[in-house]
Amino acid sequence: MFNPWTTRNPLMSMMLSGANAWAGAARGVMLGQAKRHQTAAMRQGTKQVIDPWAAALTNAAPKKRVRKKRT
């Protein structure tokens, strides 16, 4: 028995292929951005943990600002 719902539709195939390509590109962009955000957050967290210890161990005093004289 012939079923029209199971026949191939080239227009639908092209449309779904295009949508799949677009979705793959969008997924790649989103994953790249998420990885950049994750790396930045890890770097910032590490810096916040390490800086006080490094300053305490090296006995580094905070630098004072040098004021320029007005002429």
Can you describe what's shown?
By secondary structure, the chain is an all-alpha fold. The chain is 69% helix and 0% strand. The longest helix is centred in the middle third of the chain and has 49 residues, at 10-58. The protein is elongated. The mean pLDDT is 89.
Layout of strands and helices, then pairs:
Blueprint: H1 10-58
Task: Jot down its keywords.
single chain, 71 residues, mainly alpha
Structural class: mainly alpha
Helix content, binned percent: 55-70%
Largest beta sheet, briefly? none
Give the end-to-end Cα distance, rounded to a whole number of Å: 99 Å
Rg, Cα atoms, Å: 29 Å
Question: How many helices in DSSP terms?
Answer: 1
**What's the number of extended β-strand segments?**
0
Q: Outline of this structure?
A:
Helices cover 69% and strands 0% of the residues. The chain has one helix at 10-58. It starts with 9 loop residues before the first helix and ends in a 13-residue tail after the last helix.
